[in-house]
Amino acid sequence: MAGRGRGRGRGQMTFNLEDVGIGRGDSLPPTTFKPSPLFPAMSVQPVPLQTGEEVEYMLALKQELRAATKNLPFYIRRAANKRDVDRYSDKYQSGEPKDSTIEWSPDWSRLPKELCIKVRKPQGKSEFWRFVRGIQIMYDTLEKKEEAVNSEEEEDDEKKKTNQEEEQAEEEDYEEDFEEDTDYIMSYFDNGEEFGGDSDENMDEATY
Amino acid sequence: MRGNRRSLRHLSQNSTNSDVGPPTHQRVRSAGSPSCIIQTLWAKKPIKKMTAQEVRLCGLLLQEHFGEVVERIGTHLLRGGAQNLRTIANETNTPLDLVKKSLCVLVQHGVCDFGSGRRGPGSPVEYRGNCERVLRILRYPRYIYTAKTLYGDTGELIVEEVLQRGHMTMSNTVKTVADRLTHNMEEGRSMEYSEVVSSFSKLVETHFLQRCPPVAETATAAPSATPATHRTPASVTPPTAESNPDCYKLPPVTLTGRGKRRRSSDDGEEPGGVKKAKMDSESCGDEGIYWQVNFERFHQHFRDQAIISAVASKLDQTSSEIVRTMLRMSEVTTTPTAAYTQPLSANEIFRSLPPNYSISRPILDQYLSLLVDDPMEFVGKSGDSGGGMYVVNLHRALANLARATLESVVQERFGSRSARIFRLLLRKRHLEQKQVEDFAMIPAKEAKDMLYTLLSENLVQLQEIPKTPDHAPSRTFYLYTVNQLPTARLLLQHCYKTVANLIERRLFETKENKRLLEKSQRIEAILASLQASGAEPEQLTEVEEMITAPERQQLEALRHHINKLDSTENQVDETIFLLESYIISTKSK
Predict the structure, then answer these.
(1) Is A68 in the B-facing interface, judged by CB distances under 8 Å?
(2) What average pLDDT score do residues B47-64 get?
């Protein structure tokens, strides 16, 4: 019928091949059996990038902005996954915020009411927290009494004034470790992730 | 080839790329009950349909700037249209608190806006993402650099702070910028608030900064019940920044003070100082007036710059100065989407030329007529009064710039002869195969090859014109054609894909060398601390030697790659800007 015998080995088609531009006797490119490669070889190389002061300044700006946004409160990180076993140091090493308060204070009048996050004390442990708070109040009153006593002594005896200051300074020194209600100094809980500069000086020698 | 298709006599687009197409209105999911006649117009507002490439790029940008949680929420919003809080939390499997935090961040930066739901004022609040706003993040360095060139370091820091925080009050901005500037100055000097305030007011006067639009009352945390219910639904459309008449009015507060230098010894400062600072911020009196960056104004500025540099490279410096003067004079009288500026008479132009460009009046007239006669049609003549009325053809200029971009892309990817064919088709619209070969003066075989390559890349389309009603292939004309607008859209999507690929590659490179980067950062921190505490040079060199030479080389190569990738992103963004401006200008004509 019409269209047969157009050329040996060529299929029949409903339109005139010559109109498209494939003349008689032309060989077509080989048929492909697989998808084109992911990174085909480029026949032309791309034009080199622009250079100049302006370009470099904008580059520096871009990198600075990227680094700065990581430190803004808008960068939200997921809470770190709990490790398999609860460790004692977890109580004293809270890097991530445990509760869900927002770290910056937006203007709540410009946001829908439902987005306002309020911090609530955990309900189940209310008795325990009340107990702890009671102890805290007792401690505060004792402190105030001590300070009142100290100030009376100051008024009485001028010579002991320097001693008192030392004492208070010592007390303040103790405060640093005493705050978190633990017997250990806070650097006890460092798990060695920060680099200690001195200890690696003698790397050549073998350690036993 | 479409074979036996018996369709249509009208000219149809044969584009097969599903990514490209004019944006369609999003069909609003119907509210269900027929009794609910009053639907809030906010939910019905048509939004641009997102393409896959745009969503992917937005996701990467959100991840880089705000973290993975915000990225997940943001992508979900962009893909899914308007949704309420519970839906988002359920569909993204994120705890409700994290969703709330992310939405706060997104709203703060203008990426997401909210309104009452589809079923009227009683339904839960719905949130909607704004893809364009996320794509602007790519252009932040350009905005900041422009502010620097126009208003110096102070302007640069103001724009940078406002961009990073989304929106800020004026007092907050002034304080932060003054502190930063003071930090960089030498000891003993500090920055006056008044200088920063003057830069701020200059930015507001020239409309680079604008007030944030007031929030629709029905959905906020402080609803005023009675006035809201009396309003008709027609007024619940979210106000734009421009609809506020006070948009560019500075708040009536005076800020006095100097920037504070932040020293390391200040950390243990007495609480009295902190209290004093708090009282200062409360007494400032411009609470509730937030300022944001006006991107449209910056885009106008970029567009003007592009036109001026095009004139400078096509003609000469003086012509570009004339065009710059004309654009400067029409800054305030032209709307951003106008196709051409208001007519300016030659007398006005002559008077407004910058003083160091003293050309005589006849020379100016000659230059103007040269500009008018130029085939790029930057400037047109609209009348003869006042020595000749001239306009700058903004839309035409943008179209020409976009066309030049397309041609250059074809040239760089396929060679100059393919570019010749492409330009030919742009000018002559529809040509047959034989005519292409003749006009382009390229041998038949090669012309055919090039045409098919361009066709397979979808840069060139095939148009069938049947001679007979039965559309028989032997009696049909097949014409090659190039349509500028769809091709520009196609290239724009390619650009988005390119930037997304660049970001992914950069993340990959960083991840591969993470260990090395961390080590080098630690070493730098140690060096800094050692130097601050006054160590000897031997100690410093010992510490420096902890990075071995091959590691140093690796680090150097890594930095070089990352700089290149970043620089490329900036450059592709310039092309994105041109193409986007052209498409928006064409749509609004």
Answers:
(1) yes
(2) 88
